[in-house]
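Record pair follows.
FIRST:
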Amino acid sequence: MWTVRNCPDNSAVPRRRTVLALAAVLAAGAVVSVAALLGGVGGRPVVHGAWAEPGGSGAAPGTVDGSASPSASAAAKSSPSTPPPASGTPPGWRLMWSPQAGRDGLAAFEGVEDDRAGTDPGVKHIYVQGDNYRVDMPMNERDSAPDRQRNEVKGMHADGKDLSLGLGETWRLDWSFYIPDSLQGTNRFTHIMQLKMPGNGSAPILTMDLSRQGSVQKIQVKIFDGGTVVGSTDLAPLQNTWLSTSLTFTIGDAPQGAVSWMLSAGGRTVVNATKTGVDTWLQDRVRPKWGIYRSVEDTSGSLHPCYLLLTKLRAYQKM
């Protein structure tokens, strides 16, 4: 039987609730009692019976520190605040894929790579939580290569078929995602999105990375061939909040390839960058992947049990 494991998100220990009683004496001696008002110290909201950090995730029922037991169901875990709404179809583009997690489940993807080496048996690490896709990563899991971990979804399935992204085409991928502070940049590799050619052993074409330069964490998009960084910004201010991103790319051998990346938080654009003349093609076709794929050889102490949330995924093809 599959169980679902909730990875800790390092949320703060809930503070005690306070009860305020207010009484007022009205005319003619009438006394009106106002029911006790429940509120969090410092104004923290209540989420499913637990204190939650503003914009963060609260403790699920039956937990002490915000971590459910390994046998807890996905429904028993609270999600962070609501992600921003998906935007409409931009002019000049055709909407090709727009899954809803609660409706389509994991059938929205071409495939799921959940603990494919079977090192954490009996646990489901990729699943639907509300209308989000959740990817968990425990510390003990290993991929088929024992120096790394991988839980990813791959490809896009729509109208009964897998979408194929081909040479000379221009595509735009939009999605919202939530990175808790337990998912950190490392001094090896940590990818949360990739563009790849299908097939085992092929190098990525492009990656979205969580990296570390000394004590400074970065989120960046990088062309794998030549290590060209499309854009980069500090990660720490963007953790524990919903982010929206748009990745636009023309598929081609250099110099025909091009990539644009936009990243926003709270309606504020933090990255808007473009690189042209780059290589975005290997052979066969291009396929996106989302999830957590990271080396366990980090030496900065940045590896923790963690998770990633994904929602509002959209794919558009240039008309």
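SECOND:
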Amino acid sequence: MRLRNERGLTVHEEVDLATVAEDVLDTADLGDRRVHATLEPAVISGDPVLAERLIANLVDNAVRYNADAGDIWISTRTAAGSSQLTVANTGPVVSPAGARRIFHPFQRLNNRTSHDGSGLGLAIVASIAAIHGGTATASPRDDGGLSVTVRIPSAERPAGECSDPTSVRDAGLFPERTDGDSATVTGV
């Protein structure tokens, strides 16, 4: 999947992350997972297909790397000129070092020889966030599992004017800043 070309993002439509999240949850195979959704409007200007892929990858990751009968929390909101999406789950304990490398391609936190996933899902999430001028941050949950937050400038703010001043770096797949136990990927 190629997300960036010389012109950057080429589709700029208003996309409500809350509506996309509802659609993804309606079609996702959640198994025995319990979903707790708090979906407030979070409108971005961007590519609706990429926004759906971003959310689908996060939900798939939250299902795949979760405890049996575990929980998934998904929320959307707008704050400080940014639309925010957070997906968190119960599951195995994630080390701070694991959270720092989770956005690197081909990185999986579980057994590398398992056939469950390729290690590209969160790298794609980070790349999609970056091309929309946003950030993706992963933090381990104290009781196990992971919380991933994506912040993208709201539709009323031009892409690249995210409230986080570190978000004006060139888009990429690798974390550019680590804050203790979390990693952030930023981009324009």
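COMMENT: The helical segments are 17-27, 48-64, 96-101, 121-131.
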